[in-house]
Amino acid sequence: MNYLILVRHGQSRWNLENRFAGWVDVPLSEKGIKEAMDCANELENVDLDVAFTSKLSRSQETLYLILARQKKTGIFLHDSKKRDEWSYHPSRFDDSEIPIYSSDSLNERFYGNLQGQNKQEAKEVYGEEQVFIWRRSYDVQPPGGESLRDTYERTIPYFKEHILPQLENGKNVIVSAHGNSLRSVVKYIENISDDDIPKLEIATGKPLYYQYVKGEFIKKE
Ligand SMILES: O=C(O)[C@@H](CO)OP(=O)(O)O
To answer: Briefly, what is this protein's role (predicted)?
Structure first.
């Protein structure tokens, strides 16, 4: 029986400052580093075969800290036409090495014109209800940005094409990503309705653990 672990990056500098981050590549805060290290301690004895992350450094930093605790060398397999010829192919990896695939399909929701804005100030300007709708509804796009549906529509095809086959092959998979890309993944694997998805919050640095059994995801506390 193999498993899927989903981790939202530790607190970022802009989570700390209560600003919309989206695709802005802000790093972890000091507290975020500590959260990622606590998460690493929790996962220390969990055997991992393959890692996926976004193109944003906060999710990559979180992943590095998790792998460092496991004394594993994560090796990025970057996309390029020559990758299979020039890269160090995973078939040559030893037990201390783990392939990392990164994609902007796993990036945070693109927050458009809200990126950089303070969330409290946005509530004062646009009203609390409107900001909640932008942040948590399924279908409504924030100005110039992606709705959760838009995020889902890039995240889930990537999940099906790249992550599911690894699970099908019996691999233990970790995905280090973002609040809204992971809300999409959890919506998909737990079959959460559009009406219920606004209630789903994913905490920073707290791993979600699923066993993968015959095509089914079984959540473990
Ligand atoms: O700012 C963001 O990019 C996200 C996650 O931190 O915010 P929200 O939780 O409001 O979707």
So the answer is: Catalyzes the interconversion of 2-phosphoglycerate and 3-phosphoglycerate.
